[in-house]
Amino acid sequence: MQQWYELLSKIEIYQYEVDEPQEIWTETDWLEFESENNLILPASYKNFCQVFGTIELNKAQIICCPNVKFYQKNIAIIKDELEYQIKLGIINSPESMLELLDSGFVFGYTSRAHIYLWDMRTYSKSDLSCDIYFLGLDEYPLVLYPMGRNFFEFIHDFCLGAKYHKHLPQHLRPRRSRPWVGSRFIISDLWLK
Question: What pTM, to 2 d.p., does this model score?
Answer without folding.
Answer: 0.80
